[in-house]
């Protein structure tokens, strides 16, 4: 599946991803890199990207990483997501790098590192588990 | 501060809250109840409210609970947020009940229970910590 | 099952519970209260109960709360556990109150509040999910 | 500080580390690898290492990783710890690899990967934050 097709797949599956303009930059073998453009309505006072926007970006990034292991077919849903904010990101685009740590039959688990575009250090770190639908 | 004034305060502070139409139903003494109306763009395939929408709602609900303890002045930011999805909510409005468990000088902590409107059992549970700005 | 029988069941199932002298004070209907006596080998410098001791106590408390819903038969295992430390407990006994929030076929979820014996405010808060064996 | 001196420092600071025979295998530059020997009293029914033992090991491993950045002086305490169990470890020794993701003035954050000795895949994954004493 091409990157453009994956991006279309994700925006269809998660309407927020389209509304926010989330882009798929690369994906494959349990990894994925996504980008959230800078948007006025994603900011918090002080000019920092809002927490919900970062959480949504991380959630979508992990889904793409999972889809990369299943040829674009994955009906699992987020079972849990934990985010820790490490530094306030500036009001720029944000990159998310997702990595599947375990792909299981009923539960998968991975982590996502979020960075302001151009920054060396992460602004947030996420761990998340996904459950096969029907298993809860 | 009236409920209407609190709602205006929150929508100003977190533009997503306004874009999503989040309502403040009640607040006081470290508690807050908020409502996310049913919206087409918040859904996932299968007609369930998306994870990012629930996370955003919970994040805002905890902020209102914290504001209730400080007369509407609170410059702290989310330090971490962990959500566990318990049941897929139907495509209805969602209520969030937030409770401050600890109000500290540099770190506060609380929980948020999310329910589909009219449902007895929660669809998700959140714990979150908040850091005073300048303390990270 | 009597409280004494439940305590024996737990110490058999989790040898650490016996080694640490964990007591079952009460249990029933998805709730359980356990007690960790003050012990020299559970302390950290400064005279505070160590994190691993509190985590172990919370883990065992949730197991008892789950057992209370299944007549003492439960082969599920901890799938995840998240603890937030709120206040340093003094070097006293610690009480754990566990509550099952969701009992599911393959995944259950609950919370545990930890308090130094005699204290009004919690010293730590835990959320934890449990998976039926064979489901991972 | 030699590895032997670091191990002595840790066993002095966390008596459980000594009671469980936790060994420091290597450390430096925000990384640390520790080993928990197989022990009868660490097991759960079915011959798997107990959750509290893995949590305690991870907690100590992160402390060593933090100490590696501060020449063995670190008075911070665990603020939160979240563990996800990925596979049941066999009744063998367990290795923990800790990595500091952020070293902050008041809050530090990192992750720990746990593996049964000789296994390629992790049995558990931990994220944890640490607070400077006096900052809570």
Short descriptors:
Thioestr_dom (chains A, B, C, D); six-stranded antiparallel beta sheet; about 40% strand; Thiol Ester Dehydrase, Chain A; homotetramer; PAAI_dom (chains A, B, C, D); about 140 residues; two-stranded antiparallel ribbon; globular; hydrolase activity (chains A, B, C, D); PaaI family thioesterase (chains A, B, C, D)
Folded structure, characterized:
Chains A, B, C, D: GO terms for molecular function: hydrolase activity. Chains A, B, C, D: This is PaaI family thioesterase. Chains A, B, C, D: It comes from Falsiroseomonas tokyonensis. Chains A, B, C, D: Residues 46-122 form the Thioesterase domain. Chains A, B, C, D: Its EC number is 3.1.2.-. Four copies of one chain form a homotetramer. With 136 residues, chain A is of the alpha+beta class. Chain A has one domain (3-131): Hotdog Thioesterase (Thiol Ester Dehydrase, Chain A, Roll), CATH 3.10.129.10. Helices cover 24% and strands 38% of the residues of chain A. Chain A has helices spanning 3-13, 15-19, 51-67; strands at residues 23-28, 31-36, 43-44, 48-49, 77-85, 94-102, 107-116, 124-131. Chain A has a six-stranded antiparallel beta sheet with strand order 1-2-6-7-8-5. In chain A, strand 6 (94-102) and strand 7 (107-116) form a beta hairpin. The longest helix of chain A is centred in the middle third of the chain and has 17 residues, at 51-67. Chain A is globular and about 45 Å long. The model of chain A has no long low-confidence stretch (mean pLDDT 89). The interface between A and B is medium-sized, with 35 and 35 residues.
């Amino acid at each position: 599946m091409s990157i453009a097709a994956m991006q279309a797949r994700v925006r269809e599956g998660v309407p927020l991803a389209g509304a926010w303009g989330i882009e798929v930059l690369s994906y494959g073998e349990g990894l994925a890199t996504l980008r959230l453009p800078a948007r006025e309505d994603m900011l918090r006072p002080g000019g920092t990207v809002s927490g919900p926007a970062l959480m949504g970006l991380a959630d979508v990034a992990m889904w793409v990483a999972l889809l990369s292991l299943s040829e674009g077919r994955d009906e699992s849903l987020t079972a849990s997501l934990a985010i820790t904010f490490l530094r306030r990101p500036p009001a720029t685009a944000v990159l998310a790098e997702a990595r599947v740590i375990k792909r299981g039959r009923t539960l998968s688990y991975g982590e996502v590192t979020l960075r302001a575009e151009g920054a060396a250090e992460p602004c947030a770190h996420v761990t998340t588990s996904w459950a096969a639908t029907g298993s809860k």
